[in-house]
Design brief:
The complex is a heterodimer.
Chain A: E1 13-19, E2 22-28, H1 34-41, E3 60-63, E4 66-69, E5 82-84, H2 97-104, H3 114-127, H4 133-139, H5 151-165, H6 173-177
Parallel strand pairs in A: 1-5
Antiparallel strand pairs in A: 1-2, 3-4, 3-5
Chain B: H1 5-8, H2 33-37, E1 53-59, E2 65-71, H3 73-76, E3 81-86, E4 110-111, E5 117-123, H4 126-135, E6 137-142, H5 149-153, E7 169-177, H6 180-185, E8 189-197, E9 209-214, E10 220-224, H7 229-240, E11 247-251, H8 266-278, E12 282-285, H9 288-294, E13 301-309, E14 315-325, H10 333-342, E15 353-360, H11 376-393, H12 397-403, H13 423-434, H14 436-439, E16 447-457, E17 472-478, E18 484-488, H15 497-509, E19 516-520, H16 537-564, E20 571-574, E21 577-580, E22 583-589, H17 590-601, E23 605-610, E24 630-641, E25 648-658, H18 665-684, E26 690-691, E27 697-698, E28 716-722, H19 744-756, E29 759-760, E30 762-763, H20 767-775, E31 780-781, E32 795-797
Parallel strand pairs in B: 1-12, 7-32, 8-30, 10-11, 14-15, 18-19, 25-28, 29-31
Antiparallel strand pairs in B: 1-5, 2-4, 2-6, 3-5, 7-15, 8-13, 9-10, 9-12, 13-14, 16-24, 17-18, 17-23, 20-21, 21-22, 24-25, 26-27
Helix pairs in contact in B: 7-8, 11-19, 15-16, 16-17, 18-19
Classes of the chains: A alpha+beta, B alpha/beta.
């Protein structure tokens, strides 16, 4: 059954990336997507995949500061353009307010869609620091989540927005305990 | 049950603790929360090992055929290919249930659905594996396929399997509690309805992945996105003919499970075999399309319910029949079949109850357990029918239900032991929250409000394979520095089980959950926990954790009492200290307490375990339904229906869930909201359906076309938590992961009726069905015909109120049915 065969020969291209503010280089097959290069060549497995067809939003990263489905963009298109992944959201050892808010409210249940949603939400808050619930819905409408029913995600984005103004902002009582009246 | 459960079990009520809880009951941050938000959590596909090969699986493109030949020559010639497997290499069958060992890792002679695995390739990179997979040529001899319940039952196809009750009927069950004919004859009104619940799939965002590695000394390790590492361990050992001691399964945190990662899977066995063969690590990650074909999701179920009620609405008799479309393999299907008949009795008393169920094989991906396992379908039927009964009797549906509640601490017709029962409080909450009494039947046309209720188990009373060992174990190791390592075979699938474990141990030891390290889901390192299914983890693991932590606290207390020269009974643990309750200033820090105990007793490690209490039912089939406790939910759905387009817009959902006691309220609310979401998906849009005229391919195996609710469809959810502590729950806690899904589909159907006066007796309730019902003279859309099944004589069990003992009667004609409740394999027959 076992049979050794020579490696398939595929012409690699050498590319320079700017990922999370750092210069990175990789020699890759030119058909590889940004998703594949991030995960397989740069070791940034925080970015996840749910379909690799551009349907679920799981692989969302920021490219030129805008949310981009990394499974639909070729890595060769991304040379020298700023890329931000979930690994680049924290400020050194300090998590981004979105990260703590998501953790505090259980907005990350299984956590698999979370990196993509965090990237999309970060861009939203940069553009609109006080988004309404409807604006958050719209901004995250391309990101599927099967665990949360999205409600804790909306509440976490709202909490993060409040904490970015007032670090002591607390979640609503109903968010934590359900309605008590 | 061997031995005295009291001897080895944790559990039982601990009165008074609720008042003094410090960590349990508080919304602490999930212990794995920040790691998930930082992208640090390692899911199975994130694992990369040196020299790792990539695996692709060649799958059948025909629904039903014999394999005539497999030509691997072209595939072998693809550069980079290292190994190829076919069914000949893995001849031993497996399956989750001992009675349905009907799967092969790769089909040896016959394929039974489009997507059945036939051959597997390991190559140096994924592209080479893909090319080789496509170069495999299989010649098939077609067999007649079957795609529907009717066709399967009525025998219009070649047989899929050479086992099962009859033709393509996998399993037939019939049981009667009391005498339904007598009950019907005493009824004042009889209602008969036929319902259909379409299949749906789990759709976890993470595609299944597994990595296998072989040590130089021949030991195998498999990492997998599995909810049940223990069962994967057993299946690997069986199929690979390896001693279990040489096989290690590590469950990675699941990127969503919902029941879809509860079976041992062919791809897990395939990568293990490829690793053994090549001596190199091998990884497989399913494509999204493969995940749709992997399935094991909600069974499509056709149901007929005949219910006789007295003038006051009490249920004198119910005859429930279910017909399940099982897909191509057994999976959990025998249990699923029983579950479609088991939990009808735990909400409203049913004086006489008869259940008949038949599961059939069809040439489609196998169905199995999805959130609610076999119970959302009958719950839909029951709750919609109750709405019809209340309407006919002219009673408000909330009042009807409130009048007929199973009392707490009672035994049902089929011998399920109900403990705490907070459904009445749940109904009152959602009725008040939504203004249901004032608004039901009085909203403007096009707007509707509907109510439904439900109940779910907190773990199954019996294990999947027969054994008398505990269902879960927890081990603690206390470090001199005050850190506590907690080992348990549980696996967090997003429901928060790691956090529950940390909170329970922290509560008992009086420490901060951050000082706890959880080691989970590793068959080499952690005591067996049966897995994250049947809503069993919080209750069972919780008890085991309490027991292990109490044993550790006792050792610490003894050492501290000796040091302080006070009686051991006076020592308490809280705020990371052990102290004298009569003078709290006298005490030591937790780390010092560990050091004192270690000096006195040696290294400090303790264990705890849990076995559910014995079931009351002693009849065949009594293994499905019993649970240490039952959760309860009530939901009110507010929606609007556009009569022009049939479009339904859900505006708001009110839900109350009786969780017994929250371990972590914010996670409980999250489970409720997630259940509502998934219930709405099933109610309104989700369909796992196939093209019978095109070889049985999936109609929409993609995340774009398989419709699931997005942020734009998700309505506001008002959640009320009801805490009715259960004597059998850890700190009184019951389940929340599955139960709150159940009332949603029937509440939607009942609200649609309230809005536009049509009955949609089928889910999903799509606009086209609404329009057809509006046009129909019967103002109804739903199934009309049932297949003809020759049912066996039912097992007859006298009800508790007839003086029954839980055992079946000796039948006049048929075989004896008073034997043990289970077969040797532990699965009801």
């Amino acid at each position: 059954m076992t049979q050794q065969a020579p490696t398939s020969v595929r012409e690699s291209v050498h590319l320079r990336f700017r990922v999370n503010g750092e210069p990175r280089e990789a020699a890759i097959a030119p058909h590889k997507t940004l998703l594949e290069v991030l995960r397989e060549d740069l070791g940034l497995t925080g970015t996840k995949h749910g379909c690799e067809l551009g349907e679920c939003g799981t692989c969302t990263v920021l490219l030129d500061g805008r949310p981009q489905l990394s499974c639909l963009v070729l890595a060769v298109e991304c040379e020298d353009r700023p890329i931000v992944t979930v690994e680049g959201l924290a400020d050194g050892p300090t998590p981004h307010p979105l990260q703590t808010a998501f953790a505090d409210l259980g907005a990350a249940q299984c956590g698999y869609c979370t990196p993509g949603i965090l990237c999309a939400a970060k861009e939203l808050l940069e553009r609109n620091p006080e988004p309404s619930r409807e604006v958050i819905r719209e901004a995250l409408s391309g990101n599927l989540c099967r665990c949360t029913g999205y409600i804790k995600i909306f509440e976490a984005v709202e909490l993060a927005a409040r904490r970015m103004k007032d670090p002591a902002a607390q979640p609503d009582e109903e968010t934590l305990h359900g309605r008590r009246s | 049950m061997a031995g005295d459960p009291e001897q080895k079990n944790a559990g039982g009520q601990r009165p008074g603790r609720a008042a003094g809880l410090k960590v349990v009951g508080t919304p602490v941050r999930k212990v794995d929360g920040l790691a998930k938000c930082a992208g640090q959590t390692k899911f199975a596909d994130d694992i990369v090992l040196p020299r790792m090969l990539f695996c692709k699986i060649h799958r059948a493109h025909v629904p039903h055929a014999r394999i005539r030949s497999i030509d691997l020559s072209r595939a072998r010639a693809v550069p980079g290919v290292v190994a190829i497997l076919t069914g000949q290499d893995l001849p031993i069958p497996f399956g989750i249930l001992p009675v349905s060992q009907d799967e092969h890792a790769l089909c040896p002679d016959k394929v039974r659905f489009v997507g059945d695995p036939v051959a597997a390739v390991a190559a140096l990179d994924e592209d080479a594996a893909f090319d080789a997979m496509n170069a495999i040529q299989v010649e098939y001899e077609p067999l007649a396929p079957v795609f529907s319940i009717h066709d399967a039952i009525e025998g219009r196809a070649d047989r899929l399997h050479d086992y099962g009750d009859e033709g393509n009927i996998h399993k037939k069950v019939a049981m009667e509690f009391g005498d339904v004919e007598r009950g019907f004859s005493q009824s004042d009104a009889i209602f008969e309805d036929t319902f259909y619940y379409e299949g749906s799939t789990h759709l976890p965002m993470e595609q299944h992945a597994a990595v296998a590695q072989i040590d130089p000394d021949g030991k195998l390790t498999v990492w997998s996105s599995t909810q049940t590492p223990h069962y994967v361990h057993r299946a690997l050992s069986k199929v690979l003919e390896m001693p279990p001691a040489r096989v290690r399964v590590i469950a990675c945190p699941n990127g969503g499970g919902f029941g879809g990662k509860s079976d041992p899977f062919n791809h897990e066995i395939v990568v293990a075999k490829l690793a053994l063969l090549t001596g190199r690590p091998v990884k497989v990650t399913l494509t999204r399309e493969e995940v749709f074909y992997c399935h094991r999701g909600r069974h499509p179920v056709l149901m007929h319910v005949k219910t006789g009620v007295a003038k006051d609405g009490s249920i004198a008799a119910m005859h429930f029949r279910s017909f399940l479309d099982g897909g191509a393999y057994g999976s959990y299907g025998v249990a699923s079949t029983y579950y479609t008949g088991a939990l009808q009795t735990v909400t409203y008393p049913i004086a006489n109850y008869k259940f008949e169920g038949a599961r059939c094989f069809t040439n489609k991906p196998p169905c199995g357990p999805k959130r609610g396992h076999g119970t959302p379908q009958p719950r839909f039927a029951l709750e919609v029918q109750i709405d019809k009964i209340a309407a006919r009797l002219g009673v408000n549906p909330a009042d009807f239900r409130l009048k007929h509640l199973v009392p707490p601490g009672s035994l049902t017709a089929n011998y399920l032991k109900v403990g705490s029962m907070g459904l009445g409080r749940c109904i009152e909450k959602v009725v008040a929250s939504s203004g249901f009494r004032e608004r039901h039947g009085r909203l403007p046309k096009g707007q509707g409000i509907g109510l439904a209720c439900s109940s779910y188990i907190c773990g199954a009373g019996l294990p999947i394979y027969w054994n008398n060992m505990p269902h879960t174990g927890v081990q603690l190791k206390l470090d001199r520095g005050g850190g506590v390592a907690v080992f348990c075979g549980e696996i967090d699938i997003g429901q928060g089980s790691d956090t529950v474990l940390a909170q329970v141990v922290a509560e008992v030891l009086g420490i901060d959950p951050l000082d706890i390290r959880i080691v989970f889901g590793d068959t080499d390192l952690t005591p067996v926990d049966l897995g994250s299914y049947s809503s069993r983890v919080t209750l069972m693991m919780g008890h085991a954790a309490i027991q292990a932590a109490e044993r550790a606290r006792e050792l610490l207390a003894k050492a501290v009492a000796a040091k302080l020269e006070v009686p051991v009974e006076g020592i308490a643990a809280a705020s990371s200290r052990l102290f004298d309750v009569s003078d709290p200033s006298k005490g030591v820090g937790f780390a010092e307490a560990v050091q004192l105990a270690e000096a006195r007793f040696g290294t400090i490690g303790t264990v705890g375990s849990y076995t559910p209490p014995p079931s009351a039912g002693r009849y065949r089939g009594a293994g499905v339904g019993p649970s240490p406790a039952y959760s309860y939910s009530a939901a009110v759905v507010e929606l609007s229906v556009d009569e022009e387009s049939g479009w339904i817009r859900v505006d708001r959902v009110h839900i109350a869930h009786d969780v017994g006691q929250c371990i972590n309220p914010v996670l409980v609310v999250g489970q409720v909201e997630g259940s509502v979401y998934m219930g709405l998906g099933e109610a309104l849009m989700e369909e796992q359906v196939f093209r019978a005229n095109r070889s049985g391919v999936h109609k929409m195996p993609s995340l774009l076309e398989y419709k699931s609710p997005t942020t734009m469809e998700m309505p506001e959810v008002v959640t009320h938590l009801i805490e009715e502590p259960d004597p059998n729950g850890p700190f009184g806690a019951k389940e929340v992961g599955q139960g709150p899904l159940l009332p949603i589909p029937p509440a939607v159907a009942n609200a649609v009726f309230d809005a536009v006066g049509v009955r949609i007796d089928e889910v999903p309730i799509t606009p086209d069905k609404v329009l057809k019902a509006l046009e129909s003279p019967h103002r109804r859309y739903g199934p009309k015909h049932l297949p003809v099944v020759s049912w066996p004589d039912p097992i007859r069990v006298p009800t508790p109120w007839e003086g029954g003992t839980g055992r079946a009667l000796e039948p006049g004609s048929a075989r004896a049915t008073t034997g043990p409740a289970l077969t040797k394999e532990g699965t009801p027959r």
